[in-house]
Write a structure and sequence with these properties.
single chain; alpha/beta; VC0802-like; eight-stranded mixed β-sheet; seven-stranded mixed β-sheet; 19 strands; globular; disordered C terminus; TRMT11
């Protein structure tokens, strides 16, 4: 190998402590997307892709670590490995594993055990890469490592842009937050032949910053694409979003060939303004004929006939945070007018601009209705993929809604500190029988009490013990909106207090500790 060519090859490879994720098969290594906000999503997506492509995938769950981007998986053929990863968002690369160890002596020993596979690539153009997780690789270090594999005897040209075969050396230093600097040596080293890479370019294609029309609840491209994978979106399937908003899931599912449609109680988000709407996004992504239509109605008062219509339901239910959760009805039914209101001699409810009265839609009620709907209208094997917001300290696994004909596939958390949202995937495995209903924490939570328990005033007369017992009965997403804004108001008060302390200190107006606490009653 030519040293100058090697230096050119690695000149742009050094940098900050890299965070990458890879994978390997049959002895293949999967390089997953690095630890970050989506580390819990990586395995569910990989399992879903295996089901889509009918690939027999196996791995030792003990080998999977959330803070490590590497996983050894077993796949029967190289062709299956390519199919598995071709549309992956959270698995970056997959390699045929040639050797691994705690040091390079162990790696080279394993590679040399099978010299027969080197001959296939003797005269092909090739490329070597050296990357590190949790550390930085200098160009000199990379050249030294590449030279240590010179016994492979490759005689082809080094090609940086379009090699016929690519090899990767992956060093894992780990991420220890208590260490001031990376350890001097990696704790595990992998060497293998690159088989295929994931399709993270799609994130850029569907990037919200490049989208013609978005709203304040539009789901980002990466998670929308992951949800499409977990919904098993493929050509010919019919996928529905009952809280469609600006249609993010319609586009990512349709990208993979599925027919998509959505509905929403508020048609204003669908219609948009001027030339920007859900339709303009369909035109931007050239998804005519795949995104079928968007409709305006309430999921609780829908027009669907009793039938198994949908192969998947993919949605982000309203939390009542950025967009208020509403359902048709009146807060106080007793105030319903006895005589229809007339506008210009026309009953208000018959006018084209009529907007029916709505009432708040508590998150717990949303989930039960969503699961009931899914059980009735999904085909057997169809999936429900949705987001569940929850308070971190109050969440338990019992909060996930259940239904006798639906099974839980995965439950992955995206944490935001005091609150989080969980991506829940369920699959319908049997027919929905009459009398079967969705439940949430069924043994201890009665949803008939929702309305009466929404205000603290309704709990007057309860003892402290009673209140504690009732609090324990409620799921972490109960009254999520109220709890979310209580967090925000508390954070705002703390920021204001910090600012006052800073200004007083800057002016020398006394001891900053004299500033009253935000919790003090004034």
């Amino acid at each position: 190998m030519n040293i100058q060519s090697l230096r050119k090859q690695v000149s742009n490879k050094s940098g900050a402590r890299a965070r990458v994720t890879q994978a390997m098969f049959s002895e293949f290594k999967a390089r997953l997307i690095p630890n970050g906000p989506h580390e819990e999503f990586r395995l569910p997506e990989l399992e879903s892709l295996a089901k889509i492509e009918n690939v027999r995938l196996s791995y030792d769950i003990k080998d999977y670590k959330r803070d490590c981007p590497f996983l050894i998986v077993t796949i029967e053929t190289e062709e299956e490995a390519e199919r598995l990863i071709k549309r992956s968002i959270l698995t970056r690369n997959i390699y045929e594993l040639w050797g691994m160890g705690e040091n390079y002596e162990q790696v080279h020993e394993q590679v040399k055990e099978k010299p027969g596979r080197w001959a296939r690539y003797e005269h092909k153009s090739f490329k070597f890469t050296v990357s590190a997780f949790g550390a930085t690789c200098s160009s000199d270090h990379q050249v030294h490592i590449i030279n240590s594999f010179s016994y492979l005897g490759f005689k082809g040209d080094i090609s940086l842009k379009n090699p016929q075969v690519q090899f990767g050396v992956l060093e894992d230093y780990g991420l220890d937050p208590y260490l001031p600097a990376p350890p001097p040596n990696p704790h595990t080293i992998y060497f293998g032949r690159l088989i295929a890479s994931g399709n993270r370019d799609l994130i850029n294609k569907y990037n919200l910053k490049k989208r013609s029309y978005i709203g304040n609840t539009s789901m980002d491209a990466e998670l929308s694409l992951v949800m499409a994978n977990q919904a098993l979106a493929t050509a010919g399937k019919l996928i529905y979003d009952p809280f469609v908003g600006t249609g993010s899931f319609l586009f990512t599912c349709a990208h993979h060939g599925a027919y998509t449609m959505g509905s929403d109680i508020d048609g204003r988000q669908i219609r948009g303004q001027a030339s920007k709407s859900v339709k303009s996004n369909v035109e931007q992504y050239n998804l005519h004929g795949k995104v079928l239509d968007t409709l305006v109605f309430d999921i609780c008062h829908h027009p669907w006939r009793e039938n198994l219509w949908f192969d998947a339901i993919v949605t982000d239910p309203p939390y009542g945070v950025r967009a208020g959760a509403k359902t048709l009805g009146r807060k106080d039914p007793s105030k319903k007018p006895l005589v229809p209101k007339l506008i210009d001699g026309i009953p208000a409810h018959k006018r084209e601009d009529y907007y029916p009265p709505t009432k708040p839609y508590e998150m717990s009620e949303v989930l039960v209705d969503l699961l009931e709907f899914s059980a009735r209208y999904l085909v057997i094997g169809g999936r429900l993929v949705y987001w569940l917001p929850t308070i971190v300290d109050e969440y338990s696994s019992a909060d996930i809604p259940e239904h006798p004909c639906m099974k839980l596939i995965s439950n992955s958390e995206q944490n935001f500190g005091q609150w989080s949202r969980r991506l829940v995937t369920m699959e319908k495995f049997k027919e929905n029988l009459k009398g079967e209903h969705a439940t949430v924490n069924a043994k201890s939570f009665d949803y008939s009490l929702l309305a009466s328990q929404k205000k603290d005033e309704s709990r007057e007369g309860e003892t402290d013990s009673d209140k504690q017992n009732n609090d324990e009965k409620k799921p972490g997403h109960y009254l999520f909106r109220e709890k979310y804004f209580s967090f925000k108001s508390g954070e705002k008060a703390k920021r204001q207090e910090t600012w006052i302390r800073f200004k007083n200190k800057e002016k020398g107006d006394g001891n900053p500790s004299d500033v009253p606490s935000s919790s003090t009653n004034q």
